[in-house]
Amino acid sequence: MKLRELFREGRFVVTSEVGPPKGTDVTEMLANAELLRPWVDGLNITDQQSSVMRLGSLAAAHLLKERGIEPIYQLTCRDRNRIALQSDLLSAWALGIENVLCLTGDYVSLGDHPEAKPVFDLDSVSLLATAKRLNEGYDLAGNELVGKPDFCLGAVVTPGANPLEMQLIKMERKIAAGAEFFQTQAIYEPEKFARFMAEAKELKRPVIAGIILLKSAGMARFMNKNVAGVHVPEPLIEEMERAKDRVAKSIELAARLIREIRPLCQGVHIMPIGWERHVPAVLEEAGLARRR
Amino acid sequence: MLVSERKPLEEILGLLEREGRRRLFILGCNGCAAASGTGGEPEVLELKEELERAGKEVVGWKVLDFLCQKGLIRAGLRPYEKELAAAEAVLAATCGIGVQAVAAVLEEPVYPACNTISLGGVRGEWPGAERCLECGQCFLGLTAGICPLTACTKQLVNGPCGGAKEGRCEFEPDARPCGWELIYERLKKQGRLDLLRKSPPIFKDHAKMQPPKRLRQTTRWAVELEEVARR
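ok -> structure tokens follow
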């Protein structure tokens, strides 16, 4: 099922994500996916997130699809050139994967193989254009495909970026290249997000707001210092710091945030970062019912 | 030296016409570009004639030694302030480093007339911050004279990634600014953001990153290879 159909029905889309393991044991990844399944419309499969070598997102997406869980296959330009990217996209379609999130990818130095060759033959914009071209039945060289995919293509945007204008320009270019929906970097400031959405609304593409569960004040400070486009305001950090029950507070903060931004956007994407077991409580408290 | 070749006239005209530039100032370089047969006086005059035939007005031209040295550019262009003020664009017939150095000095939008295709011997005539990858498909006309291949760690040509924090690159935040933020700032200052906004997706051509056969068949190439072999 393509996310585009849910947007068309006017549904408020809920997605989350699972990360493939370092190794071949997929037990935990599948358990997390099963835990999230009743609550979400689809699950992103990260592509060697933060440049850490892992089991591939294509295989993991296939394992989910096999179990009837809708995967949103993340594909980055860091490790593959245009030949491999096109080939993986064709493979994905052959395995029943219908939603693809096209990303540039982190630089290799952020991960556990900093000596690796960074590829970046394509980037998020040209990858979207490439996938769209495959959808149209041709490869980048202009050769006609025997059987073509029909992917629903997604991209990312950072509402908290500075300068925001450059983000909006890139968002516009991603749409022109083929992006049908957007997922955002983590949001903690509803007012800032509202300002972004006021500008982005004109671009007429569904936006799924990113939510990272805040596990501690320390994590918030770390993200403020190190993660691009993420800013946790000080009052929120203090609230977390004062909390006796960190888990309960984290759930409360995330649910409150979702309720506040819900009227502004077309969906939410929860990034649990290890706290998958608390996602159902967040969604329940935010008033988002089980999907099935 | 940096070996360059002229961009086809249609490509130069395309770059200029996309932003409606008619009145031009042409810059040549007596260093590597003159030796490459792309930026010496005869080539600059030829380019001038081609552009005039295509309906452009050339309000001035100058061949300097050398366009990789910003001090020389400043001094050499001092007598041409009036012409530069009248020009809507500066066309630099030189290597990627020369175009970037000129763009760093002048307020006017600067366009490359050449592609840099190979590096023989030292990089440029003078030390400077600009870097050229000899990619054979110079992007500087689209990026306000800042090279996206050398200023961006990921060598992105379609805009910044999401990794920069406070204008610093995720690779080495303490040492590297985000190249695309520099490009954005300069395009904004020149009122040229539409160049970015309206651009179709750009694909790099890695086939052009190898020195062309034409160049490898020249005597100079043979001399350079001979020298390397003797080392």
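Chain A touches chain B through 36 residues (CB under 8 Å).
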